C-alpha cells in the first residue's frame, strides 16, 4: 500500500515538474535573461566584472546547463511536494479524486506560493538583497502559519477555530516581511512586476497539475471514502 502511494505521488510530481519547466522556459526564463542584460550593463556589478569568454560557445553551454538544472530542480521539488500533498490528502480522510486533488493543489499554491509572495515577491537577478536567514525564517513561518490557519478554518470550522485560523494566516503579514536596505534595482520596475506575475502563474499551474495528478493517481491505487 505504502509503495503504491509513493509511486503515485512520485509520478504526479514528475509530471508537474515537467509541465512547470516548460512553462518557465516559455514565460519566466526570458524575463530572467532580460534582467541579466541590465545587470551586465551596470558598471561595477558582479556580472559586469566577470571575465569575458567565447560568447557563442559559452552561451550555448550556459543555456544547456540552466535548462538541465531547472528541470532537475523542478522534478525533485515536484516529487517532494507530491509526497507531502498525498500525505495531507490521505490524512484528511476525504474522497480522493482528480477534482478534489486539484482543490488540494490550489490550497498548496495559496500556502506555499501566494501567501509568502504577499510579503516577499519573486525576485529577479540584481534585485536589492535581503538577509537570507531572515528571508527564509519569514517564508517558513508564513507557510506554516497559512497551512495551520487554513486547516483550522476549512477542516475544523466553527467560529472559534475559524477566528483562530484567520489570525494565524494574518500573523506573518502583521509582523511584516524583511525588507532590503535599498530598493534600487538594475532593471525597470515593470520587468520586476512581469517576472513576479509570470512566476506566480507558473506556480499556480504547477500546483494545479500536481494536485490533480496526485488525486487521480491516488484514486487509482488507494481510493478512499468521504469522511
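^ C-alpha cells above, recovered residues below v
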Amino acid at each position: 500500500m505504502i509503495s503504491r502511494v509513493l509511486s503515485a505521488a512520485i509520478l504526479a510530481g514528475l509530471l508537474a515538474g515537467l509541465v512547470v519547466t516548460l512553462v518557465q522556459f516559455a514565460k519566466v526564463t526570458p524575463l530572467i535573461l532580460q534582467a541579466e542584460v541590465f545587470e551586465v550593463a551596470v558598471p561595477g556589478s558582479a556580472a559586469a566584472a566577470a571575465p569575458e569568454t567565447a560568447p557563442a560557445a559559452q552561451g550555448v553551454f550556459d543555456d544547456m546547463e540552466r535548462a538541465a538544472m531547472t528541470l532537475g530542480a523542478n522534478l525533485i521539488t515536484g516529487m517532494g511536494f507530491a509526497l507531502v500533498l498525498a500525505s495531507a490528502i490521505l490524512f484528511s480522510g476525504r474522497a480522493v479524486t482528480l477534482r478534489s486533488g486539484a482543490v488540494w493543489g490550489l490550497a498548496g499554491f495559496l500556502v506555499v506560493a501566494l501567501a509568502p509572495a504577499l510579503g516577499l515577491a519573486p525576485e529577479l537577478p540584481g534585485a536589492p538583497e535581503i538577509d537570507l536567514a531572515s528571508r527564509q525564517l519569514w517564508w517558513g513561518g508564513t507557510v506554516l502559519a497559512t497551512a495551520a490557519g487554513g486547516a483550522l478554518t476549512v477542516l475544523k470550522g466553527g467560529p472559534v477555530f475559524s477566528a483562530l485560523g484567520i489570525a494565524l494566516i494574518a500573523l506573518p503579514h502583521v509582523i511584516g516581511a524583511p525588507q532590503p536596505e535599498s530598493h534600487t534595482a538594475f532593471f525597470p520596475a515593470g520587468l520586476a512586476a512581469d517576472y513576479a506575475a509570470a512566476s506566480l502563474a507558473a506556480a499556480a499551474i504547477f500546483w494545479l497539475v500536481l494536485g490533480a495528478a496526485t488525486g487521480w493517481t491516488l484514486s487509482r491505487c488507494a481510493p478512499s471514502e468521504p469522511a
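Residues 2-41 form the longest helix (40 residues).
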